[in-house]
């Protein structure tokens, strides 16, 4: 009969462990809750039966705690199932799974400590019906509380859209640290080992909370830096606009000052009936006026200001430019978003082109507005290596090596905001950025 009680206890533990993970991921399931619950029930039942069978057949052959090994096998099964049911990144799935195993160790160790305090005899012998409550009640309370707290931190971690690569190594380390303690101490110190397991896992959870909070704070710092960068773009645009207005006002003053002289010359030519010279003089005057006033690249003020400003910087650095811009003023796209996309594209392109030889020192910008979308493509030459991994480009700027480029991430975020996309491709010597923004037809 003890096998039945052991099976029930195992089923409770496996169910609560699965419930821990599903509770945290409940809003990110792609298979639907009903299908997920059905699949989870099948897997939980299978693991419970196999684990019970394993413990009652060959566990006596192992000179150490067999649950550590079996736990890793069940972990692989759970990883495959969760990866199928969600679209969460691998590192986050592993983080939750290792965390759930920490919770299971905590609840088991708590039960055994309670047994030692109440009645040490319960630690010996086969499973009984009392173990259903002895293991089940602490497991339910501990797992439920940990699931609630973990869910709150996980949502914050997921919301900030930051990289959490290798974060799962921390709970994995604490799991092995706590699990293998039982094999490092004499049998007569078993209670001490249980106590140390509880202490280690509690310290682990404190570490997790501080670690995740540190990641969140770092992400917030990056977001604030990006926000200040956007403000800087806006300020530069306004400063450029003021400079252009001042320059335009100065041109108007010169035109008014010179107008009388031009009128006197034309009057003299006409009085002498020298029509041909008057026409030639007027043509020269019109040409000089056209050269003095720089034409706009497009109707959109933000796009025009940024493109002309960065184009001037590129020309000063002997970068060959090809610019075709068709961007109306009213597209429904916020000026700050236009500044983020074009500002980052221009900065990245100029920075890369500056390192090229004369033959590859070029930038080509093409912007076309269609009925419901804006198409942006920028190409530039580059030399060196591109740091690309898992659909992410990593910055090559000093101090940011091996960190995802903020500019590219910002461009993608704006594109997604307007239901579009941003793609970045490269050959041996040319980098291409393509952005699609969907707009409301007017």
Automatic annotation (TrEMBL):
Keywords per UniProt:
Kinase, Membrane, Phosphoprotein, Transferase, Transmembrane, Transmembrane helix
Where do transmembrane segments lie in this chain?
6-25, 37-54, 66-86, 93-115, 135-154, 166-184, 190-208
What domain of life is recorded for the organism? Bacteria
Molecular function per GO = identical protein binding; phosphorelay sensor kinase activity
Domain named Sensor histidine kinase NatK-like C-terminal: residues: 337-437
Q: Which SUPFAM superfamilies match?
A: ATPase domain of HSP90 chaperone/DNA topoisomerase II/histidine kinase, Sporulation response regulatory protein Spo0B
Q: Which CDD domains match?
A: HATPase_AgrC-ComD-like
What is this protein's record name? Sensor histidine kinase NatK-like C-terminal domain-containing protein
Which organism encodes this protein? [Clostridium] innocuum 2959
What is this organism's lineage? Answer: Bacteria, Bacillati, Bacillota, Clostridia, Eubacteriales
